TrEMBL record:
<comment type="similarity">
    <text>Belongs to the AHA1 family.</text>
</comment>
<protein>
    <submittedName>
        <fullName>Activator of HSP90 ATPase</fullName>
    </submittedName>
</protein>
<dbReference type="InterPro" id="IPR013538">
    <property type="entry name" value="ASHA1/2-like_C"/>
</dbReference>
<feature type="domain" description="Activator of Hsp90 ATPase homologue 1/2-like C-terminal">
    <location>
        <begin position="35"/>
        <end position="150"/>
    </location>
</feature>
<dbReference type="Pfam" id="PF08327">
    <property type="entry name" value="AHSA1"/>
</dbReference>
<dbReference type="InterPro" id="IPR023393">
    <property type="entry name" value="START-like_dom_sf"/>
</dbReference>
């Protein structure tokens, strides 16, 4: 059993913007603290033997300039790597390119604070339709998987993760995640009614439940 409410409350979510050379981009940021030292969290996030235990199989060269591929998901290029505190990479999926930055820092109690920022050019129409939850829910699921791995050393296979996502518990996790991303969107200045409508569409997409 997973304490869904605890896992949702453990994450901080932020929606914002960043100016890149190609123009203004949207950002979603997730952060949470893990009861593990920085070196262990870094190894879990960068070791190709451990990544499949909480995320999915990965291939390629996990080094600056190398390319990686998460099987069945995104791939990209490692642009920067500063062990054990940060790395940055492109996130290429569906013919589109965005960027991720991961930062690790020790907290006062011996744990590790992980911050992940996803930067993407998203057109206004698509943003209005689904909002930040379209990618934010996936990152919440990633943080959940990492917590399970760091806590137990084990993890879920992609098949087990998919089955859990279809369960009542997994669907509740998605619904709560979508709700929190809606709140972050409103806090960032989005129109409340539009943000809630976008969140409802995103929840329906992830849970395959038609909108009421």
């Amino acid at each position: 059993m997973i304490d869904v409410t605890h896992q949702i409350n453990a994450v901080r979510r932020k929606v914002g913007t960043r100016v890149l050379e190609a123009g203004e981009a949207r950002t979603v940021t997730v952060s949470r603290t893990y009861d593990a030292p920085v070196e262990d969290v870094w190894d879990a996030c960068t070791n190709p033997e451990r990544i499949p235990r909480w995320l999915m199989p990965v291939s390629g060269e996990l080094r600056p300039g190398g390319r990686y591929q998460l099987h069945g998901n995104a791939g990209g290029k490692v642009e920067r790597c500063d062990p054990p505190t940060s790395f940055a990479a492109t996130w290429e999926y569906g013919g589109e390119v965005s960027w991720i930055e991961v930062r690790l820092a020790p907290d006062a109690e011996g744990g590790t604070r992980l911050v992940l920022e996803h930067i993407a050019h998203v057109d206004d129409v698509r943003w209005a339709e689904f909002g930040p939850g379209a990618v934010g829910i996936g990152w919440d699921q990633m943080l959940l998987g990492l917590d399970a791995h760091l806590s137990s050393g084990a993890g879920m296979t992609p098949q087990e993760a998919e089955a859990w996502g279809a369960s009542e518990e997994g669907r509740r996790f998605v619904a709560l995640s979508s709700q929190r991303w809606c709140e972050a969107n409103i806090a960032a200045g989005a129109d409340e009614a539009a943000a809630r409508a976008a969140a409802a569409r995103t929840t329906a997409f992830y849970t395959d439940v038609p909108e009421s």
